[in-house]
Design brief:
The protein is of the alpha+beta class and 467 residues long. It has helices at 6-13, 22-27, 49-62, 115-123, 141-147, 157-160, 203-206, 242-254, 289-306, 318-330, 350-364, 399-418, 428-435, 440-453; strands spanning 18-19, 42-44, 66-69, 87-90, 97-101, 106-110, 127-128, 167-173, 179-181, 215-222, 224-225, 229-237, 262-268, 278-286, 313-316, 337-346, 374-382, 385-394, 422-423. It folds into three domains: 6-90, Uridine Diphospho-n-acetylenolpyruvylglucosamine Reductase, domain 2 (2-Layer Sandwich), CATH 3.30.43.10; 97-225, Uridine Diphospho-n-acetylenolpyruvylglucosamine Reductase, domain 3 (2-Layer Sandwich), CATH 3.30.465; 229-424, 3-Layer(aba) Sandwich (Vanillyl-alcohol Oxidase, Chain A, domain 3). Helices cover 33% and strands 22% of the residues.
Amino acid sequence: MKHPLYSALAEIVGPKYVTDSDFAVFAYSNNSSQFPSRVPGIVVRPGSTEEVSRIVKLANRTKTPIVPRGGACSYGGWPEGEPGRSICVDLTRMRRILEFNPVNKTVTVEAGITGTELETRMREKGFCVHTIFSPSDSVTVGGMICGESGAAAGRDFSAAGMDWLFTWGLKVVLPNGEIIQTGSGINPNAKNHSRVSSGPDLTGLFIGSMGIFGIVTEATLQLFHWQGHEAVGSIAFAHDRLDDAHRAMAAMDAHEPKLCSTLALFGPGPAMPPGQDWVIMYRVTGFTQEEVDRKLGAIGRIVKETSPVNKGSTPQSEQMTDFYMARMHDSAHGHGMWFMIESLVPRDESLRLLKESLDWLKRELAGWERRVPVFNSSLFAQLDGDVISYHGMVDLLDAEAREKAIAVQKGALDFLLGKGGNIIVLSKDLCDVGARHFRPECAAMLRTLKAALDPNNIMNPHIFGLP
């Protein structure tokens, strides 16, 4: 039986770009996660903001829920909408670069373009954009902005921080189908040249919103000149020297100006045998080789001062750095579906919270190490905060292990949020965990905004603990 809106949607986008076949809708029923599938009723692939607007107006008239979709890379459960009835709006056809302005250092793109495509196109022109650290080949700009707190962390996250700093304006289709522009473009006479508008910062309303206030169809992002020189390195610390490793990493990150574009501390997870090293990995960039060499020299001095080599730290060659990365990557292969536990925490509490969360995971996964292996623990320096991260795997055909993995992922985030952390990657089930930690007055304000902008509750309903 055809979806009741099939003909109307086909009239908007053309029959080639709408389907309600069982195979197609099932393919759109999940994201990159071990959570259960939630099957939409129909999938539509608009090619322009105007088509998105017409789709939303149709959904609003018929009170049909909408679930926007980009690269579907979130790892915490696909939004449910109303299974079997919802319209899944796939934005990946909308991937054009609309304006490149090297003088204002801005680029305006459609929301369906991936980070990799945008970065590649801009690098050809001598520029870069802070899109997303990983997986940039499949995460779309719209997903980056709406599906991650702070609009995601770009490839230079340790020096640059979250991408909300570089998101200057958005074009958004509101739940009633109206189209608005945020940033400096709020003035119809102005270019999208700045985040600053002649009033409130409406851009921030949609960052990390999971599409509950509207569908982002275009974004204007800040450009930076490409730094053509880089080097990577690592420093290994014995398994019992976590404190020393953290001290060295914090000192490296505290240097002004920033030395490392990316900086992280990797160590063993509950599934790894005892005695594994802690390893600091870093990436340094610069406009000249001399700049890179100066930064590397400063890193060497900092490590020597904070944790001398003869006390358990060992600088590693670039080849050894590659080995550590390969070991971390390959350790998870062959174990099924991946899942992540990530939380942004204050720098002055990150060491304690890393230890406490690792102990929590070891207790929760005792006896499950082979069926729900968590291979590594890590700490990513993100400007002046840290992201605690764990990487696990589960066989989706093992129902008990899958249920355990979901419980552990949600429980670990609940534990970290209870200690003052925040969720990074947003999605249906993890957003609900986060919503349990909202201040009551903030949750009430969110409900008020949602009801005002979306009285028919069609736009990605049931997110953040909302109806």
